[in-house]
Give the backbone structure.
Amino acid sequence: MIHQCTRRHHWLLVPAVCILMSSASVSALAAPKQSKPKSSPTSTPIAQRYAHAISKGDAVEATKLDFACQYRLVAASAKGLKNYPNTSDPSYDECWQTIKASHESALTRVDAGMEILWPSNGGLVFFRENPDHYSASAFVMDVVGLSPPGSGLHLKTVTTKPLPNASFRLHPQAPLVSVPAALSTVSVTYQDPLTSPVTKAPGSYKWANTVKPARRALKSVNLQWIVLSGLKKYGFPGDSAVVNLLVNDGTPIDGINQEIIPFTTESSKAISGSLAWWGPDDVPGLLVASAARAASFPNLRDRVALLNRVLIIDPRQAESLMVLTRDLYAVILREAAAGHHLTVKDSALAMAVNEHYWNIYAQAPRVDLSLGMEMGGFDKPTTADYLYRLLPALRTLAEVRPEQLDNRFRWGVALRWNNDQDLAIQVHEQLVKDIPAERRAGKAEALLQLAWSRINKVAWNRNLDDPEVSLAYQDADQAGKLADIPLDKFLVEYTKAYALLYVPQRDNSAILDHLTEARRWFVEIPGQSSDIWNFFIGADSLRAVLDADPIFQPLLASSEEKKGP
């Protein structure tokens, strides 16, 4: 379920957007696939048969068609093999484990912060290096081919052409033999964009490691396979086999160069330039439905993983951006509650308290808002991780749905917390302009947010000559003329008092007047308590002024009296 905004700025919300699949989309997804005539095993090219065996986890068939696996059996036999070993022979599992081991680098999960991708658990195939660095079998590994849990894939032989003969020795001192070789190109099409392999975006493999590259969901790729034939006369049980992994890649041992087995003029790999990725126009109905599905997940990690997957297919998919930004903003507010340890039962007051916690925190320590999971060596995401994932999503949603005013409100606040001072002010200035005059509560809220974006800039820079602080006071004063509920009236007076902390000629009497008026409105707020009041006046910069001047002692004393035993 998409979280609803519970704060007083309900006026900002545009009419709810229902994330539903059209009946046509549902029918299209649910429609049974039409069966196609199946080729007999003997008529299917060997490279396609081999790729199919890998994708289905068929260790026996894959071993029978794999040159390296068969070579080891033949090399270990004095007279070669006339028949394949019995299906219970351990050589099949040994070969299969070797093939699977070559896939491990593409299955290693490195889920840092909120960059997790769907599937959130289990096999995520992610080609982090240039695709031609992986074995061809990695692109059809059983994690993807088995459906479920994988997405399934479709194979088709495109071309087959002869190559110069391949050569190898069956034993170190044996004569070199030569056999015919061919290059077979097989196209691979992945059925499901939500679980298909992931690569870095085209061109990003050359970026520095410190830059997080964009990711894409792979739709199709052409693989070239080396097929050797004429093997039976050299003791192989089958006459043809596919060279997927080399028996020996020529790596020196103890400084001595080793012979490449088999030696071929080409290698089995993904063909550069053949990769194609899922895009926004391929499955728009599925993406909308996935946003609704993600919103129903109880676990944040699963929600973010599926939304991230949708957004690598369509970075501007509005429904997913809406769910993601609302969820992450809510999590950051919950992180604030864990910091101030206050019990706030009223939802509107709770949001004001939690936002103010980060407003004050962003003015000085900033550690939780800047230290990510990777940088700090933590085992779980930090507040900074939520913020870093939230910001680009807020920005994109503001571009896609500028009429979504509650999103632009959150964007400006998140920019403030991230110390993007000028942009935070610009976003809230524009928000003030875009809210119609008749929306008095909305205009008041936007003005207060603008005031705090200005205050945080001055509080961080400690430049008391900055005109922003005077503008912040004026924004709050203008908001006071529009505010009509106790919470907003309290925040108006409190914001004025806080802004006066940073004027060159500070007037403590004026600060006291505003705090006294703020106190008068505070006691009328539903769910208020003395602990919450003390939280507001306990902000470091404000409390330092209050404690230093006796003029504030009656105000502080009354707060302590109200708290009581």
Remarks:
- The first strand starts at residue 126 and ends at 127.
- The chain has 22 helices and eight strands.
